[in-house]
Specification:
- The chain is α+β, with helices and mostly antiparallel strands.
- It folds into 3 domains: 86 residues, no CATH class; 174 residues, 2-Layer Sandwich (Fructose-1,6-Bisphosphatase, Chain A, domain 1), CATH 3.30.540.10; 150 residues, D-Maltodextrin-Binding Protein, domain 2 (3-Layer(aba) Sandwich).
- Helix content is 33%, strand content 21%.
- The chain has 12 helices and 15 strands.
- The strands form 3 sheets. Strands 3, 4, 5, 6, 12, 13, 14 and 15 form an 8-stranded mixed beta sheet that branches.
- A hairpin with a 2-residue loop joins β1 and β2.
- The radius of gyration is 32 Å and the shape is globular.
- The N terminus and C terminus are likely disordered.
- InterPro entries: FBPase_class-2/SBPase.
- This is Fructose-bisphosphatase.
- Keywords: Carbohydrate metabolism, Hydrolase, Manganese, Metal-binding.
- One of its GO terms (cellular component) is cytosol.
Length: 439
């Protein structure tokens, strides 16, 4: 390949001569039937007909036109040599200088986006657990998601440790806290997984269940320890500076109304888990004049929804699972939103255990406390569908999934619709026995 930026005029002449020598050697003697060109071979470059090198050899196109016995493929190959020679000669004669590098992204700095690999993990979990939708067995649905997620996750090249998983090692055979995932190669990451957020939703065929996974740099994810529950606040980027979990419910709703709804509190929607412990909170929201959107399960999806205007959810409040809170914090950091939490022990025994392990039960955990890394990868796939993601759909040929993929460092958010084919090998097609290292 010619490098026009570095070739001098003399070296261009030398290149031209060298290519013509190759041409003569490959071509042999001039055929008698070919029409000689006294001015040498010509080529149209840049719209002008130019002479190259003064050779009396005919062009290869002329050879092919006048000698039917000439091999078409050979002529085509040799003609490309002539074109290179003509371009070199034209640059010499016209003293053409090639432009410098084209401005654009520095692709040398592009790094691996693990989130695009993780989406296959959540897709596989969603496809398998979705088969249990509406069948009344939440444990079977959850186990199907865990099995699929673990199998596909093992194919991702990384040095991962599960920080948020299915429980302790003696409670869960796979994806337990502390389990090492991957082939041990870089990057070294913490893993937070919820193979099926919304097991009851799936079993009952209700919307809102998703499969979700998040990765962050090693040591950056918050370890909930013995604290299973936390009081949460989640909101989108537009109001992250005006809401605070330490404020009253009225103060937060009125602040959101001023920023997003021209002061109309009746247009503010607040997502709250439908639990008896939240009866007072729901009444507070209604007393202010806002709308309480009650959800039966799946608060990860609802937390993410606060940063997606199309969902209509402005704020999420209430007590829910701490592991789900950490996962939601990863997503909201990618989306530019906010998440706050205060650990909420279920009983005195859990309180004392948390204190003994050094947890501050009065501290407001901000985004940076829950996920300190700037490099965060997140993927989620819809199982039963909802405002955020559509449900898995099964067809005769395969399945269709709808996912969101995010990376905090670059700020990219991708919505991906994937069509899976049963008869084709692939990481998300667990019907086929295959070598996962090659997919």
């Amino acid at each position: 390949m010619l490098s026009a930026e570095t070739l001098s005029q003399a070296s261009l002449h030398a290149t031209c001569s060298k290519l013509h020598a190759q041409r003569r050697a490959s071509f042999g003697a001039r055929p008698a039937t070919a029409r000689a060109n006294p001015r040498g071979p010509t080529s149209r470059v840049g719209g002008d007909r130019v002479r190259c090198g003064g050779s009396s050899m005919p062009s290869y196109r002329e050879w092919r036109d006048h000698d039917p016995s000439a091999s078409g493929s050979t002529v085509d190959q040799l003609e490309s040599i002539e074109l290179q020679a003509d371009v070199a000669a034209t640059m010499c004669e016209a003293q053409i200088s090639m432009p410098g590098p084209i401005d654009g992204p520095d692709y040398a700095s592009v790094t691996r986006n693990l989130a695009l690999e993780l989406v296959r993990v959540t897709e596989a979990a969603a496809i398998q657990s979705g088969r249990w939708m509406g069948r009344g067995d939440k444990n079977a649905a959850d186990q199907a998601a865990v099995d699929a997620m673990r199998k596909v996750l093992s194919a991702v090249s990384m040095d991962g440790i599960v920080v948020i998983g299915e429980g302790e090692k003696d409670e869960a055979p796979m994806l337990y806290c502390g389990e090492r995932i991957g082939d041990g190669k870089k990057p070294a990451v913490d893993i937070a997984v919820d193979p099926l957020d919304g097991t009851t939703l799936t079993a009952q065929g209700r919307p809102g269940a998703i499969s979700v996974i998040a990765l962050a740099e090693r040591g950056s994810l918050f370890d909930p320890g013995p604290c299973v529950y936390m009081n949460k606040l989640a909101a989108g980027p537009g109001v992250k500076h005006v809401v605070d979990i330490r404020n009253t419910t009225r103060q937060n709703i009125e602040a959101i109304a001023r920023v997003l709804h021209n002061g109309r509190v009746q247009d503010v929607s607040v997502a709250i888990l439908d639990r008896p412990r939240h009866d007072e909170l729901v009444q507070e929201v209604r007393d202010v004049g806002a709308r309480a959107f009650l959800i039966s399960d799946g608060d990860v999806a609802e937390a993410i929804s606060t940063a997606q205007p199309q969902t209509g959810i402005d704020l999420m409040l209430g007590i829910g699972g701490t592991p789900e809170g950490v996962i939601a914090a990863c997503a909201l950091k990618c989306l530019g939103g906010t998440f706050q939490g205060i650990l909420h022990p279920r009983n005195e025994e859990e309180r004392q255990l948390a204190i003994a392990k050094g947890y501050d039960l009065d501290k407001v955990l901000e985004l940076e406390d829950l996920v300190a890394s700037e490099e965060i990868f997140f993927a989620a796939t819809g199982v039963t569908g909802g405002d955020l993601l559509r449900a898995v759909r099964y067809t005769r040929e395969g399945a269709m999934t709808h996912s969101v993929v995010m990376r905090n460092k670059t700020g990219t958010v991708r919505m991906i619709e994937t069509h899976h084919k049963w008869h084709k090998p692939g990481l998300t097609n667990l019907h086929i026995s295959q070598d996962y290292s090659t997919l």
